[in-house]
Automatic annotation (TrEMBL):
Its main location: membrane. Residues 65-520 form the ResB-like domain. Keywords: Cytochrome c-type biogenesis, Membrane, Transmembrane, Transmembrane helix. It comes from Mesobacillus jeotgali. It is a multi-pass membrane protein. This is Cytochrome c biogenesis protein ResB. It is found in: Membrane. Coiled coil: none annotated. Pfam families: ResB. The chain crosses the membrane at residues 67-85, 124-146, 216-234, 468-488.
């Protein structure tokens, strides 16, 4: 790296505008300006100095504030598009996702699915945008904070005349800086909590330098926050799944890799009684009809013993019984199961009787498990029933043929083939709720509806989050940076003797009005005139 040697002897990196030590103006363009740009102390930023190699070009691209802002805007737009329709993890498991979005939201839902917005926050391009924003924050911070830190660390007390007179607050006084006047000024500065440095009779007063690092602390907090967000897509770090569980059913808890199982012993649904409960709920009951008092799942938690053997039921050890209610989750091994939804009286089994239409003689009962139906039922004496087709959520498709919208038995329908001694070749019957059709001609036998068994279904959210503390830490650091940069100002005051006169200058990174008032107090009763605002003077002219 080439270096530029100042007349004071300090070696500055190539591209430096103001000498890091004495503040002498090194750039030709800066000499023509009335005021110097003090945002980064005139230090050399890598992005403004090198542009030759591919690394330089990548660095320069991501160091741009405009690029960072555009990445944030694109992320915000993408995130908002992801909220138009629910994400796939939150839709009911009634049908394939592609079919659900088109069925519920039409062509717009189909487009939403085709573009990948149904799994937006785990898509590769969304994660790539987050990574790009993180890279932009890191590079933009390093590009600015390193040269700024170096310049502030190397600054001398006696600054060059070209540096002082190009400060916004500048003044010259013909009065002599006597020991009494200097002591008075230093006393006032100390009262204002300035740290003083002296060199050859010159004075540098500085305070609140730490506030300059506020924006970079913000960046650090955002980077940690983004890391926490991206870690959610690392297996085992974050789980947010829905577990639908019917009464009497036992399932593996999602995310535990078959280690823990849960059984729904009973689902309890209670509402407030207008006549028995407190009067405060009566108006709500009158308006809404019903107000839920409690819904809970009485569950049993099991742990698997041994390894998983394909095709065999796992050996389970009971851990405990627990009632899962809203805001009262079941917790195990970092997982928390919350009560979030339910479905009452979902059809579970349907019963039919094989009957002779003419004599109404019955030949046996057929009970069909709507979630795991058997295909053949032998009723004895030559009477049999075969389930040729089963449609859990029946509808006619575009071609007028029977089809199912989902695997959930919301509207079950069957095509039965009925065998009897008189009809050994069998008869075909289509049976649905309130429908009994004979598509191949009139039959001698029919399947008569005999009853239905229902069960309540509970929905539990399974959550595990090892990233929450990282996200919280990032948010805390970000807020520290906001406070650090918002409530304090970095202020400096220079006094230098030049050819029998006293030159004074001052700078702050913000709140110039507050600095002006402070300068009046510092130089009061000292005989030295306080520096004046050159920008204000130009406006008056």
């Amino acid at each position: 790296m080439n270096e530029v040697k100042c007349e004071c002897g300090h070696l500055n990196p190539q591209g430096t505008i103001l000498c890091e030590s004495c503040g002498r103006v090194l750039g030709e363009k800066e000499r023509e300006k009335q005021l110097v740009d003090m945002r980064y102390e005139g230090s050399a930023r890598r992005s403004q100095t090198y542009n030759k190699t591919i690394i330089d070009k990548i660095w320069n691209f991501f160091s741009s504030v405009k690029v960072g802002v555009w990445l944030i805007v694109i992320l915000l737009i993408a995130s908002s598009l992801g909220t138009i329709f629910p994400q796939e993890m939150y839709i009911p498991p009634v049908m394939p996702a592609w079919e659900y979005y088109e069925d519920q939201y039409g062509w717009l839902g189909k487009l939403y699915y085709d573009l990948g917005f149904h799994n937006l926050y785990s898509s590769w391009w969304y994660l790539l945008l987050i990574a790009a924003l993180g890279i932009s924050l890191v590079i933009a911070s390093l590009d600015r904070v390193v040269p700024l830190y170096r310049s502030l660390k190397n600054q001398r007390v006696s600054r060059h005349e070209s540096f002082l007179k190009r400060q916004r607050m500048f003044g010259m006084s013909d009065a002599e800086l006597s020991e009494e006047a200097a002591a008075k000024i230093k006393e006032n500065l100390t009262k204002k909590r300035y740290k003083l440095r002296e060199e050859n009779g010159d004075i540098l007063a500085e305070k609140n330098r730490f506030s300059r690092w506020g924006p970079y602390v913000n960046h650090l907090g955002l980077i940690i926050f983004l890391i926490g967000g991206m870690l959610r897509f690392v297996p085992g770090m974050y789980v947010d799944e829905i577990l639908w569980l019917r009464e009497g059913e036992t399932k593996a808890i999602p995310g535990t890799e078959g280690q823990y199982y849960l059984k729904n012993n009973q689902f309890i649904f209670e509402v407030y009684d207008k006549d028995k409960d407190q009067e405060v709920f009566q108006d709500a009951i009158d308006k809404a009809g019903t107000v839920v008092k409690n819904y809970q799942t009485n569950a049993t938690l099991y742990q698997r013993q041994g390894e998983i053997v394909p095709g065999e039921k796992p050996e389970l050890e009971k851990l405990r019984d627990q009632a899962i209610q809203v805001n009262k989750p079941l917790k195990v091994d970092g997982f928390a199961l919350y009560q979030v939804d339910y479905k009452l009286d979902e059809m579970n089994k349907m019963s039919f009787i094989l009957e002779n239409k003419e004599t109404q003689e019955q030949f046996g009962n057929v009970e069909v498990d709507l979630y795991d139906p058997e295909m053949h039922y032998d009723l004895g004496n030559g009477y049999k029933v075969e389930v040729m087709s089963y449609f859990p959520d029946f509808e006619f498709n575009e071609d007028g043929e029977p089809a199912t919208k989902s695997r959930i038995p919301n509207n079950p329908a069957f095509i039965f083939k009925m065998f009897s001694p008189e009809k050994p070749e069998g008869e075909i019957s289509f049976v649905a709720i309130r429908q009994n059709l004979e598509p191949l001609g009139e039959n001698d036998y029919k399947m008569t509806f005999a009853g239905i068994e229902t069960k309540n279904v509970t929905a539990l959210t399974v959550r595990k989050d090892h990233t929450l503390w990282i996200i919280g830490l990032g948010g805390l650091i970000f807020m520290i940076g906001v406070i650090q940069g918002s409530y304090w100002n970095h202020r400096r005051i220079w006094l230098r003797r030049v050819n029998g006169r006293v030159w004074t200058a001052a700078h702050t990174n913000k709140n110039w009005h507050g600095l002006k008032r402070e300068l009046e107090d510092v130089f009061s009763d000292s005989g030295i005139e306080a520096p004046e605002d050159q920008v204000a003077e130009d406006k008056k002219e």
